[in-house]
Each structure stands twice: as C-alpha cells, then as structure tokens.
C-alpha cells in the first residue's frame, strides 16, 4: 500500500509540474546541454492578481493539487499564465 501511495505521489507531482508554466528563467541550448538562465527581476509576485476570475491579494493554494502556496507574476494569471511558488 505504501509503495503504491509513493508511486502515485511521484506521478502526481510530475503531472502537476509538467502542466504549469514556471517563469523563474528561460532556457537556451549550449552544445549538448540545456542551460537555465535565472531572471529574478521577472519572478516577483504581483498583487493583486486574477486567477480563475477571482482577485487574490496574497499567495494562494487555489488550484494547487499539493496545497503549495503560489502567486502570479503578472496582474492577470488567466491571460499570462506566469507564476512562482511563494
């Protein structure tokens, strides 16, 4: 039972990760490697922000399957889909 739960949690975490567009950096190819360019100036929370038509003034767990607090990095997540963990 514990093994099945562990496998499910790994799958669920990977599924959620692959569905979200994270904005902490951009990728570029350098030879055979992919390099992550971190751009902290674009990864600040923006408050208030709109998510699913609702306005949030603080980080939220709304829409987070694992209950992790997150925020939008633009005023309207519904349009831009940019987010980061709080």
Describe the fold and architecture.
- The protein is α+β, with helices and mostly antiparallel strands and 86 residues long.
- It has a single domain, classed as Ribbon (Seminal Fluid Protein  PDC-109 (Domain B)), CATH 2.10.10.10.
- It is 26% helix and 28% strand.
- The protein has 2 helices and 6 strands; from the N terminus they run H-E-E-E-E-E-H-E.
- It has helices at residues 2-19, 77-80; strands spanning 25-30, 33-38, 49-51, 54-56, 70-72, 83-85.
- Strands 1-2 form a two-stranded antiparallel ribbon. Strands 3-4 form a two-stranded antiparallel sheet.
Shape call: extended
Roughly how much helix do the residues carry, as a percent range? Answer: 25-40%
**In the CATH hierarchy, what is the superfamily?**
Fibronectin, type II, collagen-binding
Percent range for β-strand residues:
25-35%
Total helical elements: 2
Distance between the termini: 32 Å
Model regions low in confidence, pLDDT < 50 over at least 5 residues = 14-18
Largest sheet: 2 strands, antiparallel
Blueprint (SSEs and pairs):
Blueprint: H1 2-19, E1 25-30, E2 33-38, E3 49-51, E4 54-56, E5 70-72, H2 77-80, E6 83-85
Antiparallel strand pairs: 1-2, 3-4, 5-6
Brief descriptors of the model:
about 90 residues, alpha+beta, Seminal Fluid Protein  PDC-109 (Domain B), two-stranded antiparallel ribbon, two-stranded antiparallel sheet, 2 helices, extended
Sum this structure up briefly:
Helices cover 26% and strands 28% of the residues.
